[in-house]
Specification:
Layout lengths: L1 H37 L6 E3 L6 E4 L4 E7 L2 E7 L11 E3 L5 E3 L4 E4 L4 E11 L1 H12 L14
Antiparallel strand pairs: 1-6, 2-3, 3-4, 4-8, 5-7, 7-8
Length: about 150
């Protein structure tokens, strides 16, 4: 009896997890598209003074790094196995300069190094405008109930 309950619980948990992953995948795909649309042409490097303001993993190959509230960079990396699950990251730099193919993103406690393969500046105002437009709600008044009800 216990094994049937356990099996049923695992089956339900698996079904719920698979259902909830579809919206997450769609949201993640939309975030990647928003960042790509707001990103400019590739650059060789950018100035970086710690501490880092913020960051967001978009996949295991891409992340956004905010050096200031209104200054962000889209970094492509050579595959960071647990980037989307990392709680903390670090960036290597030389004299406060982060450079393509030379510097790395360090993930988690183990500081797994992921080489930066591309850097693109992000137009943060463009990104915020796109995000604001997605949050817009179209309102329509509810139809009046038919008389006699």
């Amino acid at each position: 009896m216990k094994s049937i309950q356990l099996l049923s619980g695992l089956l339900i948990a698996g079904l719920l997890a698979s259902c909830s992953s579809v919206p997450y995948a769609q949201r993640q795909s939309q975030r990647q598209a928003d960042y790509a649309a707001a990103a400019g042409a590739p650059v060789r490097s950018f100035h970086f003074f710690s501490p880092m303001y913020s960051w967001e993993a978009l996949s295991n190959q891409q992340l956004a790094v905010y050096s200031r509230p209104n200054q962000a960079w889209l970094l492509d990396v050579d595959g960071c196995p647990n980037l989307t699950f990392a709680n903390v990251i670090g960036l290597t730099s030389s004299v406060h300069e982060v450079s393509v193919r030379f510097d790395r993103v360090l993930t988690g406690r183990d500081n797994f190094p992921c080489t930066i393969t591309q850097i693109r500046p992000i137009d943060v105002s463009h990104l915020r405008a796109a995000q604001k437009a997605q949050r817009k709600i179209d309102e329509q008044p509810r139809a009046a109930p038919a008389s006699g009800q």
